[in-house]
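Lab notebook, design round three. We kept the backbone fixed and only want residue identities now. Task for the bench partner: fill in a sequence for the structure below.
Input structure tokens:
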């Protein structure tokens, strides 16, 4: 059987349409799978953020409680020593200058400060990871050609965990001077 130019043209057009159709179906599957992956990643990251926040709060509260107990214990020791010296009335208060008095152990307070800094930085990092996932997903559903193939165009919802102070600064665009002491 001899193929005419008309038959060959029809076969070429059908082949092109078939290839284009397969390409469209393939793109639809690829972009929707990426959408699902990013949504799943965001859901998992939300759980990481929740867990990190919980861990951060527990760790800081436990170290702070330990620091308070340590400071209270040291205060009672020093208070007892000073009261004993003043009560004697025999000049024993001056012995304090030559005695080997216990030193105030500030290591637990140093640990608390370091832990606060570390935990806050770690928590901030996890929130930045979530922001990155949301940005990647938003680009996927809004940019060409993904915007043509994605069936679920709803954005990933997430509210950044922040202080009331920071939210007010973001609303007003004004920041107050930080008074540390």
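Proposed sequence:
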């Amino acid at each position: 059987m001899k193929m005419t130019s008309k038959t060959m043209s029809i076969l070429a057009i059908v082949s092109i349409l078939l290839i284009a159709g397969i390409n469209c179906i393939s793109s639809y599957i690829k972009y929707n799978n990426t959408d699902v992956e990013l949504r799943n990643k965001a859901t998992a990251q939300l759980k990481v953020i929740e867990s990190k926040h919980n861990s951060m709060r527990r760790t800081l509260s436990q170290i702070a409680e330990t620091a308070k107990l340590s400071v209270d214990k040291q205060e009672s020791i020093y208070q007892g020593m000073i009261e004993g010296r003043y009560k004697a009335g025999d000049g024993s208060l001056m012995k304090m200058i030559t005695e080997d008095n216990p030193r105030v152990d500030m290591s637990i307070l140093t640990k608390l400060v370091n832990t606060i800094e570390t935990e806050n930085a770690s928590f901030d990092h996890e929130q930045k990871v979530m922001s990155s996932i949301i940005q990647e997903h938003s680009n996927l559903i809004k940019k060409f050609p993904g915007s043509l193939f994605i069936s679920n165009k709803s954005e990933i919802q997430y509210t950044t965990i922040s202080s009331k102070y920071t939210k007010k600064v973001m609303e007003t665009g004004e920041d107050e001077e930080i008074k540390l002491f």
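Keep this in mind before ordering anything: The chain has a mean pLDDT of 89.
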